[in-house]
Amino acid sequence: MILTQCAVCATELGLSSGKKCGRCSTRYCGPECQVQHWKEGGHDLLCKTIKKAGGAEQYNANEKYAEAVGAAAEACAEDTKGQTCYICTQALHWKTKEGLVRGCACRGTAGFAHVSCLAEQAKILCEEAEENNLGAKAKNERWNRWYTCSMCEQHYHGVVKCALGWACWKTYVGRPETDSARQMAMNVLGLGLTAADHHEAALRVKEAELSMLRRLGADEDNMLVAQCNLANSYVELGRNEEALRIKQDVYSGYLKLKGEEHPKTFQAANNYVVSLNGLQRFGEAKALLRKAMPVTRRVLGDSNELTLRMSATYAMALYLDPVATLGDLREAVSMLEEAARTARRVFGGAHPYSVGMEQALRESRAALSARDDVSAIRGALEAMNAT
């Protein structure tokens, strides 16, 4: 259940409170709002349409998907001028008339597509995996197409990731709650909403996902993933202490479950340190990453997305620390220069990772420059006093 608010007054209903329309399952906080929606809100005209679409959840997913596709195509319009979809070879989608998008690490003339084409391709691949009863590894590789570009093999980002999140959710929302594809689709949607900065909506989805997994008795790995995603939404909404407690538990959980050399443990470590930085607990942040970074580099390589993010997180712990030494600041600048170069090479200059690295690099250089100025003044004063 993703619709967690009254359709009239937006009162938070959680997953089970309130009442539903008997025909289309639209949710309300009580009979007063339901009657008002029927008489004044236009529900009398929409109720049959919503039911025909598959109910309130499916109808909402369809509507949100259409909005997200429009927003993604508009945001990518300048980049996609004169290009065609690499899947259907058309500029405008033959059926939906939607424009093109490109929200990955592809550059030049590569990677342009319609969200509808990307979604249909992912759907077909996943259906084939189900029908042919492929193994877990093959199924996961195909599922990744809901959020990963098949050409550059990097994750989609921003509004394109959000549109694909809604595409994934609308594809599987009609399945039973116990269906694994529906469960994973909720995860894809939550991450997509976060990528587009829809943090309140993302929080509701992630809370619903965690509640569902607890109710179904999900395994520890899936629970840890859901907790980590929820904590990230808490950070975006300024609930840093709550986020830190969850991230610490997730990191400890992955150390026990996967060991210190697993990518999920690296991810959990970086997420935990991001929150430590946010709460200005820089000493703890640096101590943890000094242990984790060499292992991450050895296992994933220097050009891996997570390795780069971890380097940036460590550099921020260095230059943001009020008691940073001149050596700390120089180390931060050096690390960020290398990370920014690698990010530009791997993802391109317009990718959010590259943009974030450049911003951190500018900040670290400013901090170093200010310290150098102070050191120069101090040196001049000491020289004057010595004569």
Automatic annotation (TrEMBL):
Residues 6-47 form the MYND-type domain. The keyword Acyltransferase does not apply. The keyword Zinc applies. GO terms for molecular function: zinc ion binding. InterPro entries: NLR-like, TPR-like_helical_dom_sf, Znf_MYND, Znf_RING/FYVE/PHD. Signal peptide: none annotated. Keywords: Metal-binding, Zinc, Zinc-finger. PANTHER family: AAA+ ATPASE DOMAIN-CONTAINING PROTEIN-RELATED, ATP/GTP-BINDING PROTEIN-RELATED. This is MYND-type domain-containing protein. It comes from Pelagomonas calceolata.
